[in-house]
Design goal:
Oligomer: single chain
Distance between the termini: 25 Å
CATH class of the largest domain: Alpha Beta
Helix content: 25-40%
Length: 224
């Protein structure tokens, strides 16, 4: 798609995914590498706890971000965390660093045994969305595999109060195929999360956008 044709494109019109990606790539003029984000409007009632969507999935090509992981573990499991590439590992010592706000990280992983320490950090981790959780697999005894997945492109997601999922699925310099495959991987995972009580439309609208760019609605034919 030639750059000179961008002005003639109606981005309010629903588009095939590869066309949308081409437009986003061509309109990106920033000095930094923008992220490719997806906005998925779900037909759920977020006021009902049994309809809320929350989970984690590994994108086949990662999302281009460097994820820093903090692991609460000791002994052999602490060694596994180190081998898997975790940046911060510990127990009480790690807790003290978090309370002092001395370290910055993106994901917290904890062994079940360490939760007696981690549970006391609710006021520090909770507001930042960093509290480990059984449902998304960040409270686990399998430390090595969990940290590896996170470092290799696992993303976490949950709907907001309006029933919308926001997720970063790549960078503007990813190939069109990689962006599409990442999006499809997320959609497949979201399909598995569909609440049994949803009888109507589950995926209402899907948009692609960049960090500083416009949103383009994607045709729902990608769901077929």
């Amino acid at each position: 798609m030639k750059k000179k044709n961008i002005k003639n494109i109606n981005i309010k019109k629903k588009m095939e995914i590869k066309n949308a990606i081409s437009i986003l790539k061509n309109q990106s003029k920033r000095k930094f590498t923008e992220s490719i984000d997806v906005i998925i409007m779900l037909g759920i009632d977020s006021k009902k706890t049994d309809q809320n969507i929350r989970g984690a999935t590994v994108l086949p090509h990662g999302n281009g971000k460097i994820i820093k992981v903090a692991v609460f573990a000791e002994g052999k499991q602490a060694e596994e965390a180190k081998k898997a590439g975790a940046e911060f590992i510990g127990m009480e010592d790690l807790s003290k660093k978090i309370k002092k706000n001395n370290i910055k990280f993106d994901v917290t992983v904890a062994t079940p045994e360490s939760m007696k320490i981690v549970s006391l950090l609710g006021s520090y981790l909770g507001p930042k969305g960093l509290m480990p959780n059984y449902k998304i697999g960040t409270i686990t005894s399998n430390i090595y595999q969990t940290v590896k997945k996170i470092k290799n492109g696992q993303i976490r997601y949950k709907n907001d109060k309006n029933g919308i999922i926001h997720a970063s699925i790549g960078k503007i310099n990813f190939s069109k195929n990689k962006i599409k495959e990442n999006l499809m991987s997320l959609i497949i995972d979201l399909k598995k999360q569909k609440p049994n009580k949803i009888k109507g439309i589950y995926f209402k609208k899907i948009f692609l956008t960049t960090t500083m760019g416009k949103s383009i609605e994607i045709k729902k034919s990608i769901l077929e």
